[in-house]
Write a structure and sequence with these properties.
Helices cover 48% and strands 23% of the residues. The chain has 943 residues and is of the alpha+beta class.
């Protein structure tokens, strides 16, 4: 009977065949795996046994060699101890020596296998010789005699030539003194025979290294191993495999592990045992063992095939049994599975007619499944009717509830505010997720508690009724111990329950707004780094102090840290910030009660003292200097001494406005820096601070304009080679042009440039324009020397700037000399050395200017990478009249020459100095007598 179309299963691979296919793949994989593992295990066991066999062979062969050598040495010792040998040997009586051993020789030859006996006196002369072996010229007899005579100990060695023989040399003692020695030799025939018996293999004797031409056939030469076969068992079967192995593997590797080799259908294993090295002949002997392992390999392969065959038979049997078991039940299961889609489609009557009603005598799981499907069709048919009726009712209600739910959930859970509903008694009836999150309390723990208990910590509420809208601000302590400020808005909520009024409270967290307001107020008056007052607050406080009727006098102290820039550059800006905070803390803790302390910016601090006269202000300044000196700021292994320059201005003496007082204090502070010793300065009434300040501002602006408009001008002064007055070397000098064309000496603006930090920009300007000129002059062999300030040693971008300018200008760096002063180099030696080496890495040469001012620099001279030493002009000027100057200049010249550096004498202003300079070995001279400065353009026009 054909099934209705409704119950036909789609064409696909049935579950039965899937099970068969998957189980087959699994079983085949397991069979293959077990077969592979079995083969690997058999192979590994065989390899391990062969490796152990190889090690045992090596031990036994070496043991046989050692036993043979010991036996030979014992025989030699017995002969040397013969009473009839010593006296003739001492007397060099050849006849008596030969007679002494003639009777023993046949026994030694036949029973001990001795090939040759030599009796040798102390001078290496052979007095007795038995047996036919090596010629005397083939043996290092003199070397053996010397070793045996020196050590008075036996000597054993192995030598290979046409054959390999063991030698034993034993001294002959007469009354405790060595008079000669006995040498015995024996071939390795016995050792070779033992090796063949032990290994049950073919044995070959191989010798490598430098050998004399012998009668060994060319076929026995193994060129790949640089050796020859001196002996070989079963040559017909063994020679060809050895030749192939020599081309396949290096001999040292063959000693460590055997080599498996397939040859002519046989599986061979080749191993080697190294004998002792012949140092005099640079040759080494090896015993080669050739084992036939064909039978073992075939046994392994046979076991593997047997294992695979058994596995395949087991797989076929298992699959056939599984197929027989599954065919019947799976057919019934497919029938039930075909009815289930119709059950899902509501074809209940068709399903009941398709299920057979007869029962099997022994029920199984499929029978239960058929009965359950039959009953389920009845139940589903009834439920379908009920569901359709109630579904329409629920759809309408669900739609309404969904709208209400979405509105309430969106209102409560998305709002980042506190939303709390209370009943008429003030107990919490609803809270949103944000409230639970902030309080760290679950909803079940909050519901039913009083609002006042939760949000006001038990204090009485200021809101006394629920009937009106009210608002208030309260603090809330959250579980993370943070205090939040909450703005509450309370509104009545009608519940429809006997006229009782509930309430909904909405709280907004305004903590960040309050903190921002407080922070803005603090920032308006404070310095964020040190937490001292800032410049704005200090000026306001100064204005108030000046205007106070009760304040007649007072003082302003302006403090600037010395060498703070070096702290930042040497140890980093973060260390500089730590130093500023430590200085601020020191000032605040010791002087915070005396007046207003502020950080004006950078490394500047100020102190306002009311009702303070000049003497009191000076004592405070001195006290500040002591406080800073006691800080002892240490970073790593570097210690920074904290000092400051303090300017003092009094009011109303030095000004009646904050601007005038601060300007005068600033001038006083710079005067303290210039003084360098006192570290503080109090302006007198006669000092015109405003004019000095205006002068400094004027030069700062002039330098800025000159840099922008290129109103600097380069001059050059020749540096003469004293030997032949040759001029190929010029020093670059800087001038500033006025609007009328006149030139300004650098002495008028360099000091201001160093104070304002503009000196590094001036150095870069000079470098750029000097390189432009050098690109035109270098073909004439001219070299330009450019001075760099001490501040440029700390200019981190100078190296890249110089490299870019060299590439842009096309100037040869070899014709550029960069000069730094001795003072700058010694003050920060490590930085100076690194910067000078950087210049030399770029190809430039370097010079140390003004050398000799401090003799401490002699210690560093050999470590500084400089090419030229410029002797300070103060020594050159007084050279004729000062013996001390002559001694110093001569010493500088000698030390510079010792370090391989050339010297230049500065300020050579008279002819009489030249002979002295030449006699000291100074290479170059510079000064007005040799050449005055001139514009660099006079050189470039000639180029």
């Amino acid at each position: 009977m054909r099934k209705p179309t409704l119950f036909r299963m789609p064409q696909r691979l049935s579950l039965t065949w899937r099970v068969i296919a998957l189980s087959s793949l699994l079983l085949l994989a397991l069979v293959s795996l077990f077969t592979l593992l079995g083969h690997e295990k058999l192979t590994r066991q065989f390899q391990e046994s062969r490796h152990q066999h190889h090690e045992r062979q090596q031990r036994e062969i070496r043991l046989a060699l050692a036993r043979s050598s010991d036996n030979l040495r014992q025989l030699a010792g017995l002969i040397a101890a013969s009473a009839s040998l010593g006296s003739p040997l001492q007397a060099n009586n050849t006849l008596d020596v030969e007679q002494a051993l003639d009777a023993q020789w046949p026994a030694l030859q036949l029973e001990a296998g001795i090939d040759e006996i030599l009796i040798i006196n102390r001078s290496g002369q052979v007095l007795g010789n038995w047996g036919a072996g090596n010629t005397e010229s083939q043996l290092p007899l003199l070397s053996w005699v010397q070793r045996v005579m020196d050590t008075e100990r036996p000597l054993a060695t192995l030598r290979c030539a046409v054959s390999c023989q063991q030698f034993a040399a034993v001294p002959v003692l007469v009354e405790g003194e060595s008079v000669g020695m006995v040498v015995l030799s024996r071939s390795l025939a016995d050792v070779t025979r033992q090796a063949k018996e032990v290994s049950n293999s073919e044995v070959a004797l191989l010798v490598t290294g430098t050998l004399e031409e012998s009668a060994v056939a060319a076929s026995r030469k193994l060129n790949a191993w640089n050796g020859r076969l001196l002996a070989l068992t079963n040559e017909e079967r063994s020679l060809a495999p050895l030749q192939r192995a020599s081309r396949k593997i290096a001999l040292p590797r063959l000693i460590d592990a055997p080599l498996s080799l397939d040859y002519s259908g046989r599986h061979l294993e080749l191993s080697a045992v190294r004998m002792e090295e012949d140092y005099e002949r640079s040759s080494i002997g090896y015993l080669l063992l050739i084992s036939d392992i064909t039978e073992q390999i075939n046994a392994i392969n046979y076991d593997t095939r047997t294992l695979l065959f058994v596995g395949v038979l087991g797989w076929i049997a298992a699959e056939l049994l599984l197929l027989v078991i599954l065919l019947g039940p799976m057919a019934r299961l497919r029938r039930v599975a075909g009815l289930l889609p119709a059950l899902a489609n509501g074809k209940f009557s068709d399903i009941r007619s398709a299920i057979p009603q007869h029962r099997h005598r022994i029920s199984d799981e499929i029978d239960v499944l058929e009965r359950t499907t039959y009953e389920l069709s009845h139940q589903l048919e009834r439920l379908e009717g009920e569901v359709q009726e109630r579904g329409s009712q629920l759809a309408e209600r669900i739609e309404e509830l969904a709208k209400e739910r979405d509105f309430v959930n969106g209102l409560l859970d998305t709002a980042q505010v506190f939303i709390v509903a209370q009943d008429s008694t003030g107990r919490i009836s609803l809270v949103n997720e944000y409230t639970q999150l902030m309080l760290g309390i679950g909803e079940s723990s909050l519901l039913g508690r009083h609002f006042v208990d939760v949000f006001e910590a038990g204090l009485p509420t200021t809101v006394n009724t629920f009937a009106i809208h009210q608002q208030e601000e309260k603090t809330l302590n959250t579980p993370n111990q943070q205090i939040h400020t909450i703005a509450w808005y309370h509104a009545p909520l009608q519940t429809g329950n006997e006229g009782k009024v509930a309430r909904i409270s909405v709280g907004l967290d305004i903590t960040e707004r309050k903190a921002a307001e407080a922070r803005l107020t603090w920032l308006a008056e404070r310095d964020p780094l040190t937490e001292l007052y800032n410049r704005r607050y200090f000026q306001n406080a100064l204005q108030i102090a000046i205007e106070k009727p009760a304040t007649e006098i007072g003082a302003v102290l302006l403090l600037d840290l010395d060498q703070f820039k070096e702290v930042n550059e040497l140890s980093g800006h973060h260390v500089g910030d730590i130093l500023l905070r430590e200085v601020a803390d020191t000032l605040f803790h010791n002087l915070g009660q005396r007046g207003v302390i502020a950080r004006l910016g950078g490394d500047e601090f100020s102190l306002l003292l009311e009702d303070t006269n000049a003497d009191q202000a000076v004592r405070v300044a001195q006290y500040i200097i002591q406080l800073l000196d006691g800080i002892g700021f240490v970073v790593g292994e570097r210690r920074h001494r904290v000092t400051a320059s303090i300017g003092i201005a009094l009011f109303p003496t030095h000004g009646k406005t904050p601007a005038d007082l601060m300007a005068n204090a600033d001038v006083a502070m710079y005067k303290a820096k210039e003084n360098g010793l006192q570290q503080w300065h109090l302006l007198s009434k006669e000092e015109n601070a405003k004019n000095e300040l205006q002068e400094r501002v004027y030069w700062v602006e002039r330098i800025h304009t000159a840099l922008e408009e290129d109103s600097f001008e380069l001059m050059v002064q020749p540096i003469i080679r004293l030997e032949d007055n040759d001029v190929k070397h010029f020093e670059v000098l800087l001038r500033m042009r006025n609007k009328d064309g006149s030139l300004v000496s650098p002495g008028q603006f360099i000091a201001v440039a160093e104070q304002s930090g503009q000196i590094t920009m001036i150095d870069r300007w000079v470098l750029r324009h000097s390189l432009k000129a050098l690109s035109k002059l270098q073909d004439q062999g001219i070299t330009l020397a450019v001075n760099l300030s001490g501040q440029s040693l700390h200019d981190e971008g100078l190296k890249q700037y110089l490299a870019d300018e060299l590439e842009l200008s096309g100037a040869d760096p070899y014709h550029l000399i960069l000069e730094v002063t001795e003072t700058a180099a010694v003050t920060d030696f490590s930085t100076a050395r690194g910067v000078l080496q950087t210049f030399r890495d770029l190809g430039c040469r370097t010079a140390l200017d003004d050398f000799g001012v401090g003799f401490s620099s002699f210690h560093y001279l050999g470590q500084l990478p400089v090419d030229y030493i410029k002797i300070d002009g103060s020594f050159i000027r007084s050279l004729k009249i000062s013996p001390d100057s002559r001694v110093i200049v001569r010493a500088i010249a000698d030390i510079a020459k010792g370090f391989g550096k050339q010297t230049i004498a500065e300020f050579v202003d008279q002819e009489a100095l030249l002979p002295l300079l030449k006699s000291y070995g100074i290479t170059y001279g510079q000064g007005y007598h040799l050449g005055r400065p001139k514009s660099i353009y006079t050189l470039t026009k000639k180029a």
